[in-house]
Specification:
Layout: E1 8-17, E2 22-30, E3 32-37, H1 44-52, E4 59-65, E5 70-73, H2 86-92, H3 97-104, H4 119-131, E6 137-141, H5 149-162, E7 167-171, E8 187-192, E9 195-200
Parallel strand pairs: 2-9, 3-7, 3-8, 5-6, 6-7
Antiparallel strand pairs: 1-2, 1-4, 8-9
Helix pairs in contact: 2-3, 3-4, 4-5
């Protein structure tokens, strides 16, 4: 992929009315790791939906340059389980169970009912399946939730690695600067009263 064909996400004066507030703003996101902050009810999930394409702006445009596929990783994967067993859930993502289970050190759990996994194990399973997808844009909604410190460090390494070739946007309220150095973050966006503010940081 050359410099002229790298994926880019561009929000231009988008607006979307929710039951709680009017969400609006602009932003430009290229290959790298981007953080999206804001308190509960500030409009983070709505902006994430507009970015991912699960919502369409009522005003403004969302441009996805050289993006053929985007993914929105949900905060509570237990509500989106589609198979009975751990291996079956991995297959539902179009992946090979042996590869994913080895990555997670869960080789002995392939035939277990997926809901017997702990919440942290289930979250790691979901995140592993997301990161192994072929998508130029990946948006994570509160990915650090339900993970212990080892799990958060594991996820940090995944995010930094995948952000070398993809647009990775993390919507969170966690103190991620304790985990990720600011110079590795390309931009930080904040939702304030429904308005999106973006400022640039370093680059990976």
């Amino acid at each position: 992929m050359n410099s002229h064909s790298q994926p880019e996400l561009i929000l231009e004066d988008v607006q979307y009315q929710t039951a709680g507030c009017l969400v609006k703003g602009s932003g430009r996101y290229g290959v790298g790791l981007h953080l999206l902050f804001g308190p509960i009810g500030s409009g983070k999930s709505t902006i994430a939906g507009l970015m991912a394409g699960t919502l369409s702006p009522e005003i403004g445009t969302v441009g996805r340059m050289y993006i053929s596929r985007s993914l929105l990783s949900v905060q509570f994967p237990e509500y989106y389980i589609t198979a009975m067993t751990v291996a079956g859930e991995i297959k539902s993502w179009g992946l090979f169970p042996k590869e994913v289970l080895s990555f997670l050190s869960l080789e002995m759990r392939a035939d277990d009912p997926v809901m017997t996994l702990s919440r942290g194990e289930l979250k790691r399973l979901h995140l592993a399946c997301v990161c192994m997808q072929n998508a130029e844009l990946v948006i994570y909604d509160e990915p650090f939730a339900s993970l212990d410190m080892d799990g958060q460090e594991w996820l940090r390494d995944i995010l930094l690695d995948t952000a070398k070739t993809r647009i990775v946007i993390v919507s969170t309220h966690y103190g991620v600067f304790d985990l990720i150095s600011p110079h590795l973050i390309k931009s930080r966006s904040e939702m304030t009263n429904g308005f999106l503010h973006q400022r640039r940081f370093g680059e990976i």
